[in-house]
Amino acid sequence: MVVLPELRKDPITDRWVIIATDRAQRPSDFAREPVEFTPGRICPFCPGMETKTPPEVLAIRDGGAPNQPGWSLRVVPNKLPLLGIEGELNRQGEGMFDKMDGLGAHEVIIETSVHTENLASMPEKQVERVVWAFRERVLDLKKDKRLRYILLFKNYGAAAGATMEHPHSQLIALPVVPKRVQEEMDGAIKYFGFKERCVFCDLIRQEMKDQTRVVSETDRFVVIEPWASRFPFETWILPRRHQSHFESIDQKDLEGLAFVLRSTLRKLERVLEKPAYNFVIHTAPVQDAASDYFHWHIELMPKLTKLAGFEWGTGFYTNPTPPEESARFLRDAGLS
Amino acid sequence: MVVLPELRKDPITDRWVIIATDRAQRPSDFAREPVEFTPGRICPFCPGMETKTPPEVLAIRDGGAPNQPGWSLRVVPNKLPLLGIEGELNRQGEGMFDKMDGLGAHEVIIETSVHTENLASMPEKQVERVVWAFRERVLDLKKDKRLRYILLFKNYGAAAGATMEHPHSQLIALPVVPKRVQEEMDGAIKYFGFKERCVFCDLIRQEMKDQTRVVSETDRFVVIEPWASRFPFETWILPRRHQSHFESIDQKDLEGLAFVLRSTLRKLERVLEKPAYNFVIHTAPVQDAASDYFHWHIELMPKLTKLAGFEWGTGFYTNPTPPEESARFLRDAGLS
């Protein structure tokens, strides 16, 4: 008897995913490009190279003047920014086509002074500083009312699009709310309109009850493999407490997030042998008031499979590893 | 003076793209993985190996019985289909989550019996057979009213997600109209509601007038680099004549499409040194009547850049090569 694959719908965005249970792949089945360091390269993010970056906008330092060694974390504007902070939006047409100037901000969070560390290997205290810097930069940039959305994300490893080895994350502030963010907001609003409950709060409750897709839980956060995972080992980190904006986190959240982010990355490293990955903080648009319907969270995607024509043509995803399986592998990783 | 990058909006889907004009990349700047053959591998798509695939559903053959050598093109069900044709949709819930069975079809169009050919190198007549087979399979499958959308696409080269070397395209028939297709339909309907004209017909008129993004034109087709190209050398092939459904093409269209598809791929091969690529035929849902607002076309995407956290988080794309530049490179390729 042929077992049909399962089509699963993401409850927030309505996107369908094909979970190909009969070709289910185990962690060792993926062709991986483990993240490795190339020795001897000159790195503009290392201590002593501060003049190779634009002047810092934020730093944690034991001593030393700005843009000198002595720091443990630095935030600097991207040297080749995708968007620039000066000027006007300057919306205009070219016949039927529309364009505007690339106004915004593009910053790099240099997570540590140690070139060979990463978020999984560095001390928990240092991850906490990184998360603190994320919050600080959003709180500062949201004062600029031209900036409508602020995205925090990380590309780790060349396969995930990283061009620099030195541990870093990125921030991009945009003059418009992007289409994908708006879709997620709209999905959450639709659910709230129907149920008068936050879809993410409901999702957390159901996952706590089912337990099959839970990776770990602490008093403040839960880590799950989502129902309609687009990719093998796609992992979400959600705060238990309802909060629409990431930048509203308090000191305890910040500590709790540092712990859970580091421990989740350690599990992924253990099970998938240092995979390349992307993570993105999903949060409500910065100029919006706190809302009952959206719930900030982190989406983490190890880079194990490739998008191809089918995904491009439809927006469907095909995932060869059911989230129940990947959750089990991560729970069994033997790490707290 | 800092030149701000340009944000451009796709007139159909409203997606924004950052065209980073100041870091503009020429064809030689991309790290490429040229598509190459591994000699000596046993190939289940080669003549004499017909028993290695499920029985053919369509073939062009000079002689020989079905599923025997003597063919120049074969269409077979995928051996590991993403979706199966037998059964029912069987929609059901699991708490707040929704699922259904993976009902549909997944077929492989084996484009030629010659393992080492490709759509750019094979005779034009053979490309015509491929396009003919595309149409035949859609016309046959659309009789099954459970199938709501039929996607034709090609992954060429491992970097674009191909797992088999032998020249082939794929067809996937789905029991739902996918989200991305519906978005494109909705965008076209919105434009039609505003202008009472097809957005693609308008786009062709403007591109013919501007000429800056035109790669080539024939009496039946135009080839352009779209205004809001998501990727370097993204290329669209559009029929001049308004038609919502690909499968409505007549014999002359079929010949014209074979010519223009082959010649476009030859130009991309010349300029980008045999790049991996995906193409997807964008067409209206098969069970819908012919419409005034949608216009079928092919979107072709050479695989030169990687998606990273920013793209995942926002649905924005960043393209380091303005379409006006890539159009010029392709026009100058010195091929008809």
Secondary structural class of chain A: alpha+beta
The total count of strands of chain A amounts to 15
Which protein chains make the most extensive interface, counting residues with beta carbons within 8 Å of the other chain's beta carbons? A-B, 75 and 76 residues
What's the number of helices of chain A? 6
In CATH, the topology of chain A is named HIT family, subunit A
Briefly say what this structure is.
The structure is a homodimer of 336-residue chains. In chain A, 25% of the residues lie in helices and 23% in strands.
Describe the secondary structure blueprint for this structure.
2 copies of one chain form a homodimer.
Chain A: E1 6-9, E2 16-19, E3 58-61, E4 71-77, E5 92-94, E6 97-101, E7 105-110, H1 124-141, E8 149-156, E9 168-174, H2 179-195, H3 199-210, E10 214-217, E11 221-224, E12 235-239, H4 251-272, E13 277-282, E14 297-302, H5 309-314, E15 317-319, H6 323-331
Parallel strand pairs in A: 2-15
Antiparallel strand pairs in A: 1-2, 3-4, 4-7, 5-6, 7-9, 8-9, 8-13, 10-11, 11-12, 12-14, 13-14
Helix pairs in contact in A: 1-4
